UniProtKB/TrEMBL annotation:
Stretches assigned to the HTH iclR-type domain: 20-81
GO molecular function terms listed in the Swiss-Prot or TrEMBL record: DNA binding; DNA-binding transcription factor activity
Domain annotation IclR-ED: ranges: 82-180
SUPFAM superfamilies found in the cross-reference section: GAF domain-like, Winged helix' DNA-binding domain
Database matches in Pfam families: HTH_IclR
InterPro entries assigned: GAF-like_dom_sf, HTH_MetabolicPath_Reg, Tscrpt_reg_IclR_C, Tscrpt_reg_IclR_N, WH-like_DNA-bd_sf, WH_DNA-bd_sf
Highest taxon in the source lineage: Bacteria
Keywords: DNA-binding, Transcription, Transcription regulation
Keyword hit for Transcription: yes
UniProt-recorded name of the protein: IclR family transcriptional regulator
Length: 180
C-alpha cells in the first residue's frame, strides 16, 4: 500500500494548468525561502511545502545542479548564485527600475515616509522596489518580499485589478487569519 500525504502539497495546490508537476514542486521549494528564512533544513523544506523528504531531496539535487540552491556544510540549504544571475537578467530586461526609483526617491524626500512599488502576484503582492524613510521608526518591508493582498495600502490599491476568483481567495484567506 503506497503512503499518501494526509494534506496535499503546496505545489499541488498551485499546479499550473497544462504545466509539469515536478517543475511546480521545484518552484514551490524555491518559494519556501523568504526574507525571514534564508536558511532552511531538509525537514523545514518538507514541512513548508508538504512534500515527502525523499521528493524534496531529489528536487534539491536538480536545483543544486542549476546553482539555484546550495547545501551548506551543516546540511541546511540557501538560495544559490543562479537566483542572483536570474535577477540580474530580469533587472536588465526591465526598464521599470529607471522609471520607478526616481519617483520613489521624490516621494520619500517630500513626505519623509517610506515608499514602495508593489505588483500583484496571484492572491499576493511582491515588493519590487523600495526606498526607506529617513525616520528612525518605520516599517521594514524589503524589496522581494511577498505580502498579503488584503493588508496595507499597497495591497488595497492592487485589489481592484484582481480577478473575481483572486479577490475571493484573498478574502477567504483573510477570514481564516482573523478567525485564529
Amino acid at each position: 500500500m503506497s503512503k499518501q500525504p494526509a494534506i496535499a502539497s503546496m505545489a499541488e495546490d498551485n499546479l499550473a494548468a497544462g504545466g509539469v508537476a515536478a517543475v511546480d514542486r521545484a518552484l514551490t521549494l524555491l518559494a519556501a525561502f523568504g526574507n525571514g528564512t534564508p536558511v532552511l533544513s531538509l525537514s523545514a523544506l518538507a514541512e513548508r511545502t508538504r512534500l515527502y523528504k525523499s521528493t524534496v531531496l531529489r528536487l534539491l539535487a536538480s536545483l543544486e545542479h542549476a546553482h539555484l540552491v546550495v547545501r551548506r556544510a551543516d546540511g541546511c540549504y540557501v538560495l544559490g548564485s543562479g537566483v542572483a544571475r536570474l535577477h540580474a537578467v530580469y533587472a536588465q530586461s526591465s526598464s521599470s527600475e529607471s522609471l520607478v526609483m526616481p519617483v520613489l526617491h521624490e516621494l520619500v524626500a517630500a513626505t519623509r515616509e517610506s515608499a514602495a512599488f508593489h505588483v500583484r502576484q496571484g492572491s499576493r503582492r511582491i515588493c519590487l522596489y523600495r526606498v526607506d524613510s529617513p525616520q528612525p521608526v518605520r516599517d521594514h518591508i524589503r524589496a522581494g518580499e511577498l505580502l498579503p493582498l488584503d493588508r496595507g495600502t499597497g495591497g488595497r490599491v492592487l485589489q481592484p485589478t484582481a480577478t473575481r476568483a483572486t479577490r475571493h481567495s484573498v478574502n477567504t484567506s483573510a477570514a481564516r487569519r482573523s478567525s485564529r
